[in-house]
Amino acid sequence: MGEVPYPEVVAEMADMLLQLRRISWSFCTGRFRHHLILSMRSSNPTAQAGHVISKLAKDKKAVGGHNLFAGGKIPFEGEKEGEIIELENRLLRDFARFMGYENPEWKMLLDPSQPGTG
Description:
Elements: H1 8-18, E1 25-32, E2 35-42, H2 49-56, E3 63-65, E4 69-75, H3 81-98
Antiparallel strand pairs: 1-2, 2-4, 3-4
């Protein structure tokens, strides 16, 4: 989600996405005050979202969760923009692989070039 005005908006988006038809998992990231905020949701009561997110994050102390939801934050103060983007991309790639997708094609939900969407 890029920069967010407050960290809770990442969890709110993950909750909202899970309400869409045929969606059983959602995983959102956003940047807030030198941290990458993570939020994961599942509609499957046996999904073990906490286990999944701990597999994605290198620092297991930075994340936690339960069956249906998980989250955390990874500090990135002092890192360059390219390094932060690579972290976001790695997390998304690893999540997709965990879900069984080797080479997903990502599409923006919002166009940041349009007023009011970015």
